[in-house]
Specification:
By secondary structure, this protein is of the alpha+beta class. It has three helices and ten strands, in the order H-E-E-H-E-E-E-E-E-H-E-E-E.
Length: 181
């Protein structure tokens, strides 16, 4: 009886705290991320602007490093940077860690420089967390379906393109990004 009550409570708490989900369709397969509005409200709001305006569609995963991460959302198929909204405040100190299958914002060396580029961690990357490297890289959700697609990305041959390295030889294009209802 007690075990059943605890299980019911656990399931209820999971459903209460579930955040918005975004489904990505790519030329390599599909994956879905669940966003954590509670811990990363600024980052989630920013990310959803790009999803809702459709501007992730037609962008590529331009940097993929096996055993590290797959980064995308900022370049089109001609390897040109795409338009961004203003940079956001870094929420790297939100208590979420750059663990395997989490999604985080890419940024420059400037702490509050993230705009639209994101990355999915292929492994636990503790060195990207706030405690190891203030201000850290802001995690704002995790892959809940299709992580095998992210792992497939890491198996694709890469090359250099201009000054960029680790660019997949065959483009991995985001063909659709949809906020699930």
């Amino acid at each position: 009886m007690l075990r059943k009550a605890i299980l019911s409570l656990a399931l209820l708490s999971c459903s209460v705290f579930a955040g918005p989900k975004v489904a990505f369709e790519t030329t390599l397969g599909n994956f879905t991320v669940e966003l954590n509005q509670e811990k990363a409200p600024i980052t989630v709001s920013n990310f959803l602007k790009y999803v809702e305006d459709g501007s992730y569609e037609g962008t590529i995963f331009h940097r993929v490093i096996p055993g590290f991460m797959a980064q995308g959302g900022g370049f089109n198929q001609d390897m040109q940077m795409v338009k961004t909204y203003a940079p956001i405040k870094n929420e790297g100190n939100n208590g979420l860690s750059n663990d395997r299958a989490t999604i985080a914002m890419a940024r420059t060396n400037a702490p509050d420089s993230a705009t639209r580029q994101f990355f999915v961690n292929l492994t636990d990357n503790d060195f990207l967390n706030y405690g190891a490297r203030p201000p850290g890289y802001a995690v704002f959700g995790n892959v809940v379906e299709g992580f095998d697609v992210i792992e497939k990305m890491a198996k694709q041959p890469t090359t250099s393109f201009g000054r960029m390295q680790d660019v997949p030889e065959k483009q991995i294009v985001i063909t659709k990004a949809t906020l699930l209802k």
